[in-house]
Design goal:
binds pyridoxal-5'-phosphate; 2 domains
């Protein structure tokens, strides 16, 4: 706290990212990064972008990348909005769509915790809607009759940190039931096995689908995300963006992102490898006695019936293995574990077997 702060700063509750530790022999399974590197074609395109042109501002409209993304989803470039990572897009979504007098935003009680951080930052009125006992969204909680129309609904699909996916039919039903609310589906992990609501875009002008290149395209360090929405929503996001930073995507990011999306073969191969490793990892964790929620993401969410999750996390850390633990109601006995390579998953399971065999 300082005498120089704006009035609202003391009340902010910043998002706490997973630890970026430096230790020898580190196995980092705590921030859902991809264990495989980016597409070699993306790396080549970024090297080629390192030149005299960097003295020039990037293309303001980022048209080439928006066209590539639009083609990938069978949409028009006018339905694509870009941002410096999907977190930046989410921030603009909260600012542009959820500040409606007297109308709350609906958010699941267990989901990506950044949503509540943005609620605080922008003073968005919101209501937490509990997931059911299996950690699933109940469609009727969002689609049923309500005294006041919400400004919007936001959830991650697959959800974070559970990994559970909601079927497209449920998203379709929610978007249909709430035509005057923005229905925002954060699909950061969708490429690891769930169906994208981009397929519903033609049916609903209130749908906003957000993707990132940080997970399935292995480019967390590049900071590229995009939203798919109808042109009036894209216009609202652009108005906010251009009141904030006109050039959120640098020339290197534009080149790398475009090549990454064009490299379909590499994308298929790396996401398939992660999905295969997830299946093996889930099986091995179950064999060690863990309950593992069904995951369509690049992580699993697991709890042991007899061991404290925070204690397991600490014991793994002593072996330079990082996993994520949230001290939040309902999930404090779970660990969120990013799917690594088969070798990394095997090291994790050996460490867990040893920790569980020790008396406690
Ligand atoms: C559900 C969800 N949405 C968005 C993000 C942010 O991704 P980005 O790296 O594109 O900012 C994350 C990152 O972990 C996430 O888990």
């Amino acid at each position: 706290m300082s005498k120089l702060w704006s009035d609202h700063v003391a009340g902010l509750v910043p998002y706490v990212p997973g630890e970026q530790a430096r230790m020898p022999n580190l196995l980092k399974l705590n921030t859902n990064e991809n264990p495989y590197g980016p597409s070699p074609r993306a790396l080549e395109a970024m090297r080629a972008a390192l030149g005299d042109d960097l003295r020039l501002y990037p293309d303001y409209s980022a048209l080439a990348l928006r066209q590539t993304i639009a083609r990938h989803h069978g949409l028009d470039a006018g339905q694509v909005f870009l941002g410096n990572g999907s977190d930046e897009i989410l921030a603009h979504v909260f600012n542009a769509l959820f500040l409606r007098a007297g109308r709350p935003l609906l958010v699941p009680d267990i989901t990506y915790s950044f949503y509540r951080t943005y609620c605080r930052l922008y003073q968005v009125p919101h209501r937490l809607v509990p997931l059911d006992a299996q950690f699933a969204i109940r469609v009727e909680d969002y689609a049923g009759p309500m005294a006041v129309e919400p400004s919007g609904i936001i959830f991650a699909n697959p959800n974070a940190p559970t990994g559970c996916a909601l079927p497209l039919a449920s998203i379709d039903a929610i978007a249909r039931a709430r035509p005057d609310s923005a229905v925002v589906v954060d699909e950061a992990y969708v490429d690891f096995g769930a169906d994208s609501a981009a397929a519903l875009m033609d049916r609903h002008d209130n749908l906003v689908v957000i993707h990132t290149l940080s997970k399935s395209r292995s480019l967390a360090g590049l900071r590229v995300g995009y939203a798919l929405a109808h042109p009036p929503v894209v216009e609202a996001l652009s108005r906010v963006k251009d009141s904030f930073n006109s050039y959120p995507m640098d020339r290197i990011a534009l080149a790398g992102a475009q090549a990454a999306i064009e490299d379909e073969a590499y994308f298929e191969q790396s996401r398939r490898a992660v999905m295969d490793a997830r299946q093996t990892l889930a099986g091995e964790l179950r064999a060690l006695g863990f309950e593992v929620l069904p995951s369509e993401a690049n992580f699993v969410f697991a709890r042991h019936p007899a061991r404290d999750a925070a204690a397991i996390q600490r014991a793994l850390r002593e072996q330079a293995i990082l996993v994520r633990h949230f001290k939040s109601p309902r999930i404090e006995q779970f660990l969120r574990i990013t799917v690594g390579t088969p070798e990394e998953c095997a090291r994790l399971c050996r460490a867990l077997a040893q920790i569980l065999s020790e008396s406690h």
